[in-house]
Amino acid sequence: MATIDEAYRLLKYRATKSGFNGSISPDDFNLIFPRAEMRFFNSKYKTYQINQENIESLLAFKTDPLPITIDNAGKYTKPTDVLHIDSLRHTLNGKDVEVVRVEDDRLGNKLNSTYDMPTLDFPIYVEYKAYLQFYPINLASANFIYLQNIIPSKWGYILVNGRPVYNVGTSVQPRYDDTDLDEILFIAMSDIGINMRDVEVEQYAERKIQTEK
Asked: Helices (DSSP H) in 81-163: which residue ranges?
């Protein structure tokens, strides 16, 4: 897996090879590269549940099973980095039981149903902005797997004699494999071509993006 420094150097090299005559400063890179990351991430996330390739691309953002404690009111405060809930499971008599998601507008019907009321054998949850609400409220615990929000990568640096020098301590590393990183770099090159009005670089990058798909 490439570092952010390798990504920066590779982007400058490819831009130059494609005919770009300008310079890409660290601040330019730290503006353009995270935008390219977000475009790539969003394109994969749109079909995350149905496309195995996209699942693999976002695997670095998927947590291991997290044991959670549910309070006496059936509530669990969500971690701040939750983007997408992958699964919730409850252990009952040594067996894993799925905790099924229910939308808020259907909760009343569930709770008032004679036949479909949530039980420890068939627990449910509702997702709100800051917390998850579980039923029955005495569920007590579960295992939580989720997809984390993206943390933008950053090329950190210090100035030495007025020149930026890579600083790993203030950098944020990308979490993608090399194949996906290639696609992100071509997206970034496309942005460079657009922002710098460099048609040749933009066209080169767009061709590469289409080839990678």
From this structure: 104-111
Tell me the CA distances in angstroms from 190 to 4, 74, 163, 164, 208, one per residue in order. 19, 48, 26, 24, 10
Give tens-digit pLDDT for 42-93: 999 988 877 777 888 899 999 999 999 999 999 999 999 999 999 999 999 9
Q: What 8-state DSSP symbol labels residue 65?
A: P
- 85, 127 in Cβ contact below 8 A? yes
Distance CA 24, CA 73 (A): 54
| SS3 letters across 92-105 | ECCEEEECEECCHH
**Angle at which helices 4-17 and 178-195 pack, to 10 degrees?**
50
C-alpha distance across the termini of the chain, in Å: 20
pTM for the full predicted model? 0.81
Question: Residue 25's closest CA among 162, 178, 184?
Answer: 162
Query: What size, in residues, is the chain?
Result: 213
Amino acid at 153: S
- Kindly report, residue by residue over 148-178, the tens digit of the pLDDT: 999 999 999 999 999 999 999 999 999 999 9
